[in-house]
Amino acid sequence: MSTDLATLRGLAHLARLEFDAAHEQQMLGDLNNILDFVAQLEAVDTTDVEPLVHLSQEINVLRDDEGRNTVSHQEGLRNAPRKDSDYFRVPKVLD
């Protein structure tokens, strides 16, 4: 399978890409190499291959989601640019 220059220019237009003449020929060669590789992959017989759903056999290896305080209230307010006793001061959002 090979792609011509007109197809490459059409794809470049759709992707909003611009190539000069030297890069256009290089891109055409690269695109044809990619399409040749895909054609090789299509020729592989995969009739007896099970579909791959996950890359790993591990199931639920994540830790339990437990709420905990890692920063105390005072530590959180320590570096606040503006604060009012126990609260952060922020610009008004609504008029």
TrEMBL record:
Top-level taxon of the source organism: Bacteria
Alphabetical list of SUPFAM superfamilies matching this protein: Glu-tRNAGln amidotransferase C subunit
This protein's record includes keyword Transmembrane: no
Pfam family, one: GatC
Swiss-Prot/TrEMBL keywords: ATP-binding, Ligase, Nucleotide-binding, Protein biosynthesis
Database matches in InterPro entries: Asp/Glu-ADT_sf_sub_c, GatC
Enzyme Commission identifier(s): 6.3.5.-
Reactions performed catalytically: L-glutamyl-tRNA(Gln) + L-glutamine + ATP + H2O = L-glutaminyl-tRNA(Gln) + L-glutamate + ADP + phosphate + H(+); L-aspartyl-tRNA(Asn) + L-glutamine + ATP + H2O = L-asparaginyl-tRNA(Asn) + L-glutamate + ADP + phosphate + 2 H(+)
Entry's Gene Ontology BP terms: glutaminyl-tRNAGln biosynthesis via transamidation; regulation of translational fidelity; translation
GO-annotated molecular function: asparaginyl-tRNA synthase (glutamine-hydrolyzing) activity; ATP binding; glutaminyl-tRNA synthase (glutamine-hydrolyzing) activity
Keyword Ribosomal protein applies: no
NCBIfam families noted in UniProt: gatC
Stated role: Allows the formation of correctly charged Asn-tRNA(Asn) or Gln-tRNA(Gln) through the transamidation of misacylated Asp-tRNA(Asn) or Glu-tRNA(Gln) in organisms which lack either or both of asparaginyl-tRNA or glutaminyl-tRNA synthetases. The reaction takes place in the presence of glutamine and ATP through an activated phospho-Asp-tRNA(Asn) or phospho-Glu-tRNA(Gln).
Sequence similarity: Belongs to the GatC family.
Quaternary context: Heterotrimer of A, B and C subunits.
Protein name: Aspartyl/glutamyl-tRNA(Asn/Gln) amidotransferase subunit C
UniProt organism field: Hymenobacter coccineus
